[in-house]
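Q: Two folds, back to back.
A: First:
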Amino acid sequence: MPENQKPNSTTKSKAETAVTDSDNIENDVDSVDDKDVADVDIEIDDIDDELNASEADESLKEDIGKKINQLRLAKGYSQRKLAKLSGLTNTSISSIERNKVSPAVNTLKAILTVLGSDLTTFFSDEWKEPKARVIVTPKDLLELNEPNSKVSLKQVYNCSRTRNLGFLIETYQPNSSTEEKIAHEGEEIGTVIEGKIIIRIEDSTYLLNQGDSYVIDTIQPHTFINPTDSITRIVSAHTPTTY
């Protein structure tokens, strides 16, 4: 360009336009970046909310199972008795207490009615967890069978929510037996401390004398029978703590 020639308006306009376009592009990029960051923040917040809600649901489900277990034992009911009175199966009660499933509202209501409670009290702040005790006296033992039953199953229960082992003191009157073909989750170990006992496990029969012990998978249908004219006593432990 000659020295005495000045830039024309068209050239200047294009240069200014180029600068302006560059600024606009940077602004657009900044705007996009800000929007993306905001979107990411929102998504993270949503994920956190979902995780918190999930944790709350799990905690609530855990509380339901443990509370039902505490109410049942405080009432002195076995799982079979609670299941029978509430119109459910023993497996259903076991699954609920172990927090394997969450009961529907109608199911929970039926269970609480049998246990002398209601939904309002169950979910209120008035719920008080009993304090676990170290010593369990004879009067604190929970009888799991009916009062007129010839078989007494007394559970050693100390109100602990973290217990992993159940313990029974069993007394069999002469010529008595448990319900036919009992089955429940877990493993049971016991010792005959007085008398004799017959254990039927499906098609097999075992006779135990005083001092003999047994180890059985309780998912297999089984029956305990005292075939003698004398009392039989057994102490047994089972895991999980459901019975």
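A: Second:
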Amino acid sequence: MKKILLLSVLAFFAAQLRAESKREDLVTRVETCEAILQDFMIHRDTAIPASILKQARAIVIVNQFKAGLLFGIKQGYGVILARKPDGRWSIPVLISAGEASLGLQLGAKSVESVFIITDDATPRLFFNKHFNVGVDAKAVAGPKAAEAENNNHALIEAPPAAPVLVYSKSAGLYAGATVKAGYLSRNDDANRVLYNTAYTMPELLYSDWVPAPSEVQPLISYVAKITQ
């Protein structure tokens, strides 16, 4: 019975993601990720410190949905932007996000996360089919800007303890805590539709072969602004 329920829930999420393959729906995903990042930055309790953002070599923004009865399935989408050697930011590249967990979980919720990647090697792990946050690369909860008000400047200004700093709306995260946040995976099919190109994630992140359409430029501009 549990196996049937799990397969049913997985089929539901798979159908939802397939249904959102129209370009306008993919543009909405990018716009939603921009709104998530802006929401993090305007609230004191979730804002990412400027000193952390300056160190960013890539930024991942994820929107996940969690629902289930006997099984909890977390599924969603996101974008990754990479900083190029000359300091410019790439176009946002669509990714998928997910996690499955056992246990009694009633209702549904949304989990919004921002991952700040502080080295050049970790973004390339996304070139594989799956990147497991906290497994393939060490991830810790990142310090928040509000902590500077509590005389924790050393925590804010210290070099990152891991290449991936996690900021999430989920409760219970404290700076420096080790985090495992499920998997992220490349979504070449979605990017093919969004950018009308056969190029895949490596070229989209690190080349200038695909120009940024007008719909994604606001997110690129915002990321460039906050990471100066």
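Q: And?
A: Residues 23-42 form the longest helix (20 residues).
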